[in-house]
């Protein structure tokens, strides 16, 4: 198959392109910037040139772009996309019904939403790992020499979030309500209840005090936007700080981040690590690696889970139902339920080396056999 890959600045592309080539597909890459995901005449003209002259069987992108879909529709060219963000506001657009689309989403909740709305172009496909590339890197670098840590987390603390920017504009009663919604979310493991707590009256009141316009003219639901792009990030910020502070009381807690780390008293702070060359080494050598899923991913497995398992790392993650569809909990990885459970399980596995190492090995073997980019690419490009 001859595929035009639209490439932008997001982690999975190199592994996807390499996987496509390994499976015998001919690849061209378009890296022209999109300034508006919905309608971008300059980009659309550039894409049209490729489709007019290239005889492509398909166009592929990570995440869905209405601008790409509409050009593919015009030229009757298949458009395959695979989301790594959820929910994706740009998918709340009539273009998702274009018959040339095959849109793969990694969050099963998103898939169910589009099934309920009769959108037959949307399919469910989890994300994937790259154990071959990562194990080759680990073999060459011997990460235990530098990254032998008790507990590690590489990621954003979301210290800069839209809620903190907006909250001063709210009257006390609305501020109190939003804070209560965030606090309730912190007490829920494995889901998102923020959207359920935002009534139409609350949203009407909030809209009077805050600029809630959505980016790129997306017509997606305002309540969903506020829950996922504003409150969810604030809840994640509090959740991650609580987890890091609690774990730092029982062991060496190593944090790799660009975020502000004020208030993290015993945590050992490091500069961020590069995704392709350093992060896998941290995952491979740390005794415990953390995944803390942002609440707006309601039933999906983030890329970090697959990256940790690809490195042969031991993983502790919060719960999402779809985890049980891909992995055996407590055999391939460990799930925690809240901060107290996280700290007690971390303390246990730090002192039970053989059990921890067996779980890490099981997780790696399960991923290698079933959940690599090779498996996912075969699914996406076999139809």
Protein architecture, described:
By secondary structure, the chain is of the alpha/beta class. It is 44% helix and 13% strand. It contains 16 helices and twelve strands. The chain has helices spanning 13-22, 41-54, 66-74, 108-116, 131-141, 162-166, 172-186, 194-197, 200-209, 222-247, 279-285, 303-310, 323-326, 339-350, 353-370, 373-380, and strands at residues 2-6, 26-30, 58-62, 78-82, 101-105, 122-124, 151-154, 253-256, 268-270, 288-291, 315-318, 334-336. The strands form two sheets. Strands 2-1-3-4-5-6 form a six-stranded parallel sheet, with helices on both faces. A six-stranded parallel sheet has the order 9-8-7-10-11-12, sandwiched between helices. The protein is globular and about 60 Å long. The relative contact order is 0.13. Residues 214-220 have low confidence and may be disordered.
């Amino acid at each position: 198959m001859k595929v035009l890959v639209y490439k932008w600045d997001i982690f999975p592309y190199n592994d996807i392109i390499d996987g496509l080539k390994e499976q015998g597909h001919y690849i061209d890459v378009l890296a022209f910037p999109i300034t508006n995901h919905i309608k971008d005449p300059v980009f659309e003209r550039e894409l049209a040139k490729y489709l007019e002259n290239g005889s492509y069987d398909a166009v592929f992108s990570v995440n869905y772009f209405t601008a790409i879909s509409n050009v593919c529709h015009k030229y009757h060219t298949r458009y395959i996309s695979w989301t790594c963000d959820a929910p994706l506001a740009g998918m709340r657009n009539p273009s998702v019904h274009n018959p040339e689309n095959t849109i793969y989403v990694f969050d099963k909740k998103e898939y169910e939403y589009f099934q309920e709305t009769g959108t037959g172009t949307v399919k469910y496909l989890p994300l994937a790992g790259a154990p071959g590339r990562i194990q080759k890197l680990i073999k060459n670098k011997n990460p235990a020499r530098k990254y032998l840590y008790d507990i590690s987390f590489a990621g954003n603390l979301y210290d800069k979030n839209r809620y903190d920017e907006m909250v001063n504009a709210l009257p006390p009663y609305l501020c109190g309500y939003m804070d209560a919604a965030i606090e309730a979310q912190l007490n829920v493991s494995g889901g998102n209840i923020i959207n359920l707590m935002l009534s139409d009256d609350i949203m009407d009141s909030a809209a009077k005090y805050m600029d809630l316009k959505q980016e790129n003219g997306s017509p997606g639901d305002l309540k969903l936007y506020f829950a996922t792009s504003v409150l969810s990030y604030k809840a994640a910020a509090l959740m991650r700080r609580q987890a890091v502070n609690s774990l730092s009381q029982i062991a060496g807690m190593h944090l790799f981040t660009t975020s502000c780390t004020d208030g993290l008293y015993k945590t050992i702070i490091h500069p961020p690590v590069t995704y392709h060359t350093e992060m896998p080494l941290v995952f491979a050598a740390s005794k415990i690696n953390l995944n803390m899923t942002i609440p707006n991913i309601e039933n999906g497995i983030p890329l970090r889970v697959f990256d940790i398992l690809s490195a042969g790392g031991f993983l502790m993650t919060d719960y999402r139902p779809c985890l049980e569809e891909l992995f055996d909990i407590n055999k391939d990885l460990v799930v925690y339920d809240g901060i107290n459970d996280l700290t007690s399980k971390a303390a246990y596995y730090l002192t039970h080396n053989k059990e921890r190492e067996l779980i890490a090995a099981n997780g790696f073997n399960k991923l290698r056999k079933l959940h690599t980019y090779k498996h996912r690419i075969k699914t996406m490009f076999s139809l």
